[in-house]
Amino acid sequence: MEKLFDNTEVAFAIKSNTELDRAFYLFEMIKREPLVKIGTAVTKFALKAYLPVEGIIRATVFDHFCGGVTEKDCMSIIDKMYTKNVHSVLDYSAEGKQVEEHFDLAMEKTLNTIKFGKEKASLPFAVFKPTGFGKFEIYQKITEGKELDPHEVVEWKRVKERYDTVAKAAFDADIPLLIDAEETWMQTAADDLIEEMMVKYNKQKVIVFGTLQLYRWDRLDYLKKLHARAKEQGFKIGMKLVRGAYMEKERERAEKYGYKDPICVDKNATDNMFNDVQQYMIENIDDMAVFSGTHNEESSYLLMDLIEKYQLERNDKRVWFGQLYGMSDHISYNSAKEGYNVAKYLPFGPVRDVMPYLIRRAEENTSVAGQTNRELELLKRERERRKI
Predict the structure, then answer these.
(1) d(CA 28, CA 370)
(2) How many helices (H) and strands (E) does the chain have?
(3) Does the predicted TM-score (pTM) go above 0.70?
(4) What pLDDT does residue 42 have?
(5) Nearest to 345 by CA among 120, 187, 63, 125
(6) CATH class label, 67-351
């Protein structure tokens, strides 16, 4: 595959000089791991103490990685990206709330996104996070095979109803629904519930997508077993592929409780797992749809090669490339220019409630070898090209 991702003029075409400078200086800060750790600790303290720091957060990390506080805030960004054929996935990213009212609000936000998707071609997916619809502890108890108390039984019934309400709305609107993955010790309950939705709504085409975190060494085996069940029961599989976001937490817990580490032994093993799953899904594309969520250039080129090898159209709606807003524009915009389906996850929500998401993004950029340096190299090259 010809190297597409070095074209900075295409990658940053919609960024103003000011936005380009902000991105450059933000990644310069993020690449310094001690600074990220100190900044994270100070930010958490300031928010907990209700110090007036939200304006600073908005002007820096929030506005770079998020679309805004409300859906309406995001619309100008959505429209701007779509001028370059880059779609958006509106992601209500408020976290940490554990009350029924919040779970209902998250469901309403997802239903609104489905409605927007019917009206705007730039919004081809809706998305939600499992713990946005119910308590982590209930997912965990079910995953561990523990009995729920009577109150939890009622709560779990509501969780299932939220999933079904949103999945049915997605089915009726013909808008695919992406459901994120979280920690291993709660994920089986979510996977089983997602499979129930696939059985119900993925008979003719993929509406419901689960997520495979491919830093887990067991995910290809899981997918193959799911595929066997899908062929027996007559439903199709949708999967978003990601490497994963909870590695340190996963390893610490495995060591603490003395069970086998669920994470691949090293980055190379994770990359191989990602690429193997991607290949398996394209080989079986008549039974599946794939949303390849990656900032890895090699995995993106591999997917392009697979599309060509299996003689698929570049804009085949069963195959999508995905990146996070604020990251890897060189992959997103250059891929879209070549006619591939591309969507950016565009988080939104109250600044305070979106901070856990933003902290993960900052930490991810310090921990992934080469990620921040690659961003900086490309931003620097474009600034030089523009003679800023």
Answers:
(1) 13
(2) 17, 8
(3) yes
(4) 63
(5) 125
(6) alpha beta
